[in-house]
Structure formats: structure tokens, C-alpha cells
Amino acid sequence: MIDSATNVRIKEVSVITVYLDLQPIPFNKGFYSVDMTFFFDVAVELFSGSASVPVPVNGVAVFNKKVVLYGSEGNVKVFSSEASADEVSIIGDSRALPTAYVQVAEPVALSAKLCGGGCSCEPYYRIPEAISQLYGGELDPAPQRNNVYVTIGLFTIVQIVRSVPMTVPASEFCVPEKECVPTSDNPCELFRRIDFPVGEFFPPRAGDCDCGCSADRAR
User: Fold this and answer.
1) Do 201 and 99 reside in the same domain of the chain?
2) 61 CB contacts (<8 Å, ≥6 apart)?
3) Within this chain, do residues 52 and 122 fall inside the same structural domain, yes or no?
């Protein structure tokens, strides 16, 4: 259908999976290269003539990307008390490679084109068997008379993760200096603790008056 098509239109794109390969960079300690191979499921419509009905087709698109990130290094092994005495268990080895993760937002289907024999195209990639089975069998990557090439907008976040100890600042605890006085539900004991309200029985002095009148007039 692709060989007989005269035009193609992209419909939508989704991410099938991403293969990641992490390798240390020689002579640059602590840095690692992350090779990512993206596999996309691409839905397109093929046109064989100006008045023909478009034929929907799904295929696999492949894209490679490499980044270099800092992942640190260490020289310790971590053991746990949960391990049995009859087995050797290491729960963490900081000398080992860190773990790479990639977060991929929903890709944007931008455009598609038919590429013939005279077109300078990217090399073909071998499609893994697990992905080929999603399309009913082995996908033949051999060049055809026409090939569909798509432009995809992609937003990703690549991370390198390693377990490391962290120091968290903490304040010293305070020892109480006074003994806590036990409370009672007896209303009489509660009333005895209240100070006598002397100010309620005597009028305020002239200097304490906040009514706005002068002291002479108050006399």
C-alpha cells in the first residue's frame, strides 16, 4: 500500500516503549552516557489518488537520542540486618552503575512524507520481536520503493538515580525546667487561682483615662 501511495497524512502517535543503555564515560569519572531508543506507534492515512478514499495504516517509527549526565560514584557496599546468615546479600553497591529513567509526555504528530529511492534517509533499525508481535509478526525493515517518514514533537526528562546518604539538620531537644501542675475539674480550685480583679472595683486614675478629656476637667 505504501509503494502504491502518492501522498500520506499523519493522524496520531503514541510511545510503545523506550530502550535505555547506560555506560560510564572513560576518563571522565562520575559521568555517564544514556542511549535511548524510542519506539512509536504511528497511525497514518495513505492516498493513492486525488479522489481516492484514504487507507489507515499503523506502523513503527524509531528514534535515537543520547545524553551525558553526571551520576557520581562511590566506594562502599551496603549490608542489611534482614539478610540471613546462610546467604550473602548486598542491598546496595555504590560502585555499580546508577539507574537511568526517562519520562515521556504524549508525543505530538507534526507531519509525514513519502520518501522514495532518491531520498537521503536515516538507516534502518531492527525492530525487536516483542514489538513486532504487536503487529502480528516480524516487521521487514528492508528498503521499499516508498517509505513513510514522520516528524514527531517530543518532550522528555532524563534522570540518573543513585541511592546516597543525606544529612538533615535537626534542632536540639529542650528539657522542661518546671514541673507540670496537674489540673482538676473542681470549679472551686479553679476559682482560687484567679487573681482578685481590683481594677473592676475602683475607677481609673486621671492619667489612665482614655476618654479624651483633660485632667483638670475630670476634677
Assistant:
1) no
2) 13, 39, 40, 42, 150, 152
3) yes
